[in-house]
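Need tokens for this chain, all 395 residues.
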Amino acid sequence: MKSITSNVLVINGGSSSIKFALYQNDASLTLVFMGSIENIGTKNTTFNFTDTIDKKEKSSAVKINDFDEAANYLLHWLEHAPGFDLVKAVGHRVVYGMQHTKAERVSAKLLAGLKKLRLYDPEHAPGEIKLIELFAKRHPAFIQVACFDTAFHTTMPLVAKQLPIPRKYFEMGIQRYGFHGLSYQYLMQQLHSIAGKKTANGKIILAHLGSGASIAAVKNGHCIDTSMGFTPTAGLVMGTRTGDLDPGVAWYLLQVKKLTPAKFNQLVNHQSGLLGISQTSADMKELVALKNKDTRAAEAFELFCYQAKKFIGAYTAALEGLDTLVFAGGIGEHSPAVRSQVCKGLTYLGLELDETKNRHSEAIISSAASKITVRVMRTNEQLMIARLVHDLLGM
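Here are the structure tokens for all 395 residues:
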């Protein structure tokens, strides 16, 4: 490794996984290594690691019972990893930022505020807080920075934030926040870099389609609407999440089927979506392979694409037109079948795919005659967090 003054460590804690990455503090933030602990608390817990400098990869099964064990396991491993001794700052992905509009240094006051948000986000907040506190205890000299997923969406107008319930609840903070903001921020920076300022300031729909899926409408560089709402469960159908759900379903299940709030939360976040419809898999790649012989897999595929198409149509109306459609995320980047199905029938907008380019997942998959440019872009939340830390601290 070349001589440098410091490194930036990125930590992205989810409900059942922790992703991590180490970047050199140079002009391009060179990636040193990255990895993850996946399926925490299950029999299939794995530790994955890629050394991008020496081009080495490894994946191994590990016995980890819960998130606390995973956090301690990861920090112990990092403490013996090359380059950790040069870490100056740690950037954390924090799902809920409420009214925070930019990344901020973690202070006692900020951490106390995050702890109050645990009821808003029982899936992610406890793990995020655990990781921040663990680093503070073991490495108090590290500067820790919170990078908020909701910050990108704070530019949404009031009409896109309000929920149609009594105003007193809005004043309590119950509103539409939107998520995947770090991904969207990265995609907008990349779009500006590869296509120029005029394109980046146009009418854009960003489709972050993965096991968690959302769509955002961006105009003049600012988010004006997004499919996720008060929680990341809202919007599109996802791998195991319902997406938008009639509140009457909750009432029925709680009253008639006697589901507890905890069981209902488990149902809508972990047992529904593509998994619930197909009854076989939450993985779109598997569903695409099965859909020609399994009607339930086909129905899950169709529902996902249908809902994505509906949001694209709605956001084209909100934007009063559409210049660029971007597919990103694990599904958006890697599934030509999904992209084709989502775009089918959007010819009335002047959108036309080049199916050959689409099959090869080229950077631009729209035809030369298309009035709308359709792009496939790889998102990178970890690099976006490193950039935010770098910029905030003037490193």
